[in-house]
Specification:
Elongation Factor Tu (Ef-tu), domain 3; 5 helices
Length: about 350
């Protein structure tokens, strides 16, 4: 029987070393792959889109008249588009127009009074006052002469030719004539001086009050016409023609079509990657194959708990920050309250 060769025993340590080296090399390759995979995934994760969930939001306007009254007409209905300044409703003005005409007439009368006072006395009025003074003086002289004659006869006759009553009457007539002369003299003086400054100021104040009343009635007529403040869509028609309304009662509710935004919430872990003006896109279920471009317009400075209406993968008790992502929607496809998914692109900026 042939003895076994000792060579395989001599070669076993070398084979073992080669296997160890192969295993070590394999472990190094696997470790490098793991490290590279982690680095690549971390890098991509840092640059990947941030996905948020929210709802489409927009502003609404409740239109009401500034004054109380009966609605005469409403020119729009739900779903109608209106332009800025377009007439949407009117109040009954059958009482306001006569009131305005009355105020205008009163203002015209006060304007004439003020003009008369400002122009002062006419030359003819001054001449008339002078003539009245001359007449009063003549009457005074006549009354004095009559009193002198009666008094002379009374003295000469010892009261037999003329009674004491006649003497008293002529004396009183002379005193009345003298008073009339003084009145005529003061009337002439006033005519020359013209109206008092206080009278002119009073007339000017009354005219200003009439002008204010006219402006108020004109404003009430203007307020009787309800206009759309911005381009919008009529969402709700609350009142009807014939209804009585007041400033506290809404007539129409308008939904402003621009701007629109998605109210979303971002966790604190992603807050450092978001900034105002960041590029975004919005997707909704109604337009599955379409993305609406947008940008981040508002980031809240206060943390809050996630609202129950928002579906996110995180726990609902985690703190988040509200952001508003404004959306370009030229065809008005997005509706109020639509669930939306927001994709924020780090590094992208709204043009």
């Amino acid at each position: 029987m042939t003895e076994s060769s000792p060579q395989p025993a001599a070669t076993q340590p070398g084979a073992r070393r080669r296997r160890v080296r192969a295993l070590a090399l394999l472990a190094g390759v696997i470790g490098a792959a793991v490290v590279l995979g982690w680095w690549y995934g971390h890098r991509n994760g840092a640059s990947a889109d941030i996905v948020l969930y929210g709802n489409v939001d927009l502003r609404e306007v409740d239109l009401a008249f500034n004054d109380s009254g009966r609605i005469a007409s409403i020119a729009v209905d739900e779903g109608d588009r209106v332009r800025a300044g377009e007439v949407v409703a009117r109040l009954d003005t059958s009482r306001l127009r006569p009131m305005l005409a009355q105020a205008l007439a009163q203002a015209a009368a006060e304007r004439a009074v003020l003009a008369r006072l400002q122009h002062g006395s006419r030359p003819q009025e001054i001449a008339q006052a002078r003539a009245n003074l001359l007449l009063a003086r003549a009457q005074q002289q006549q009354a004095l002469a009559q009193y002198a004659r009666v008094a002379n006869v009374f003295r000469r006759s010892g009261g037999r030719a003329v009674s004491r009553q006649d003497l008293t009457d002529t004396h009183a007539a002379a005193a009345v004539a003298a008073a009339r002369t003084r009145v005529a003299r003061e009337a002439l003086r006033l005519a020359v001086l013209g109206p008092r400054r206080e009278d002119i100021a009073q007339a000017a104040a009354l005219l200003a009050a009439d002008h204010a009343q006219v402006a108020l009635l004109r404003q009430e007529l203007a307020d009787a016409v309800l206009r759309a403040p911005l381009p919008a869509v009529v969402r709700t028609r609350v009142a009807q023609p014939g209804d009585m309304t007041s400033p506290q009662q809404t007539v129409l509710t308008l939904a402003i079509t621009s701007p629109k935004w998605v109210r979303a919430y971002i966790p604190e872990s992603d807050l450092g990657r978001v900034r105002p003006g960041m590029q975004a896109s919005v997707a909704v279920d109604a337009f599955a194959h379409r993305r609406f471009p947008g940008w981040v317009g508002f980031i809240s400075s206060e943390a809050e708990f996630t609202p129950k209406t928002i579906e996110t993968p995180d726990l609902r008790t985690s703190l988040v920050y509200e952001i508003r992502v404004y959306v370009k929607d030229p065809h008005d496809d997005l509706r109020l309250g639509m669930p939306a998914t927001v994709y924020l692109t780090p590094g992208g900026t709204h043009p």
